[in-house]
């Protein structure tokens, strides 16, 4: 039986190291890479092609929600399991809408994390014991008329490019971080300006940051 390959994404090294040690002790699970934020995760996932990504939510550069949306836009078969301290309703729903297949809190025990990894790899949805009831209620209450996502007129790629524009990245930096050509990025930027009806980068940055995209952390 082939091992389940996993990438661990968390901006705290002590958490990453702990997860690597935990997962490395499980038969049939192999950690093939780690990343310190969503931007690094894009690179690591492209290089290692894991079965499952264990993703934190609150991180600099691309956060876990944006990284999940971007990664699944490129590899829909990828399974992303959120493992975070953040349990507010808005974040939980945002993660699910971004395509996460599970949501655990960092207080989860080793057996729960092990079960979640295997369930995710097998194509299932999994939520921590402390979260399952709340998530069911949230979905029942919220999915009939969900809040409109920011800039629904943008494609997945354009949304990711806009998030990096809002973080202050140049076209060249965006091309490197998203593994795209500069021409492709320029085309995406032009499409973003047209769809958002803005005159240039400053206006796009203001709109994006008002919508919660981007970070000034470098």
Number of domains: 2
Oligomer state equals single chain
Estimate the helix proportion, in percent: 40-55%
Overall pLDDT: 86
* Rg from Cα: 17 Å
Lay out the secondary structure.
Elements (H helix, E strand, L loop, with lengths): L3 E6 L3 H12 L4 E7 L2 H11 L3 E4 L8 H11 L4 E6 L4 H10 L3 E4 L4 H12 L4 E2 L4 H11 L13 H11 L4 H8 L3 H15 L4 H10 L8
Parallel strand pairs: 1-2, 1-3, 3-4, 4-5, 5-6
Helix pairs in contact: 2-3, 3-4, 3-7, 7-9, 7-10, 8-9
General description of the model:
With 218 residues, the protein is of the alpha/beta class. The protein folds into two domains: 4-142, Response regulator (Rossmann fold), CATH 3.40.50.2300; 156-210, Winged helix-like DNA-binding domain superfamily/Winged helix DNA-binding domain (Arc Repressor Mutant, subunit A), CATH 1.10.10.10. It has helices spanning 13-24, 38-48, 64-74, 89-98, 110-121, 132-142, 156-166, 171-178, 182-196, 201-210; strands at 4-9, 29-35, 52-55, 79-84, 102-105, 126-127. A six-stranded parallel beta sheet has the order 2-1-3-4-5-6, sandwiched between helices. Helix 2 packs parallel to helix 3 (64-74) and helix 3 packs parallel to helix 4 (89-98). It is globular, with a radius of gyration of 17 Å.
Tag the structure with descriptive keywords:
globular; alpha/beta; 218 residues; Arc Repressor Mutant, subunit A; 13% strand; Rossmann fold; 6-stranded parallel sheet; single chain
């Amino acid at each position: 039986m082939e091992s389940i390959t996993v990438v661990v994404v968390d901006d705290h090294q002590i958490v990453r190291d702990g997860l690597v040690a935990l997962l490395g002790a499980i038969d049939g699970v192999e950690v093939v890479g780690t990343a310190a934020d969503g931007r690094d995760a894009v690179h690591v996932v492209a290089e290692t092609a894991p079965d499952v990504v264990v993703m934190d939510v609150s991180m600099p550069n691309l956060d876990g929600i944006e990284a999940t949306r971007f990664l699944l836009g490129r590899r829909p078969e990828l399974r992303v399991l959120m493992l975070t301290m953040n349990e507010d309703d808005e974040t939980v729903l945002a993660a699910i809408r971004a395509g996460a297949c599970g949501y655990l809190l960092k207080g989860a025990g080793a057996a729960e994390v092990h079960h979640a990894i295997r369930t995710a790899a097998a194509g299932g949805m999994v939520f921590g014991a402390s979260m399952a009831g709340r998530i069911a209620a949230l979905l029942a209450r919220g999915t009939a008329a969900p809040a409109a996502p920011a800039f629904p007129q943008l494609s997945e790629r354009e949304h990711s490019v806009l998030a990096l524009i809002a973080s202050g990245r140049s076209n060249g930096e965006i091309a490197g971080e998203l593994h795209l050509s500069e021409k492709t990025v320029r085309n995406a930027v032009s499409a973003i300006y047209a769809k958002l009806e803005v005159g240039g980068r400053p206006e796009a940055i203001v709109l994006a940051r008002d919508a919660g995209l981007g970070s000034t952390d470098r």
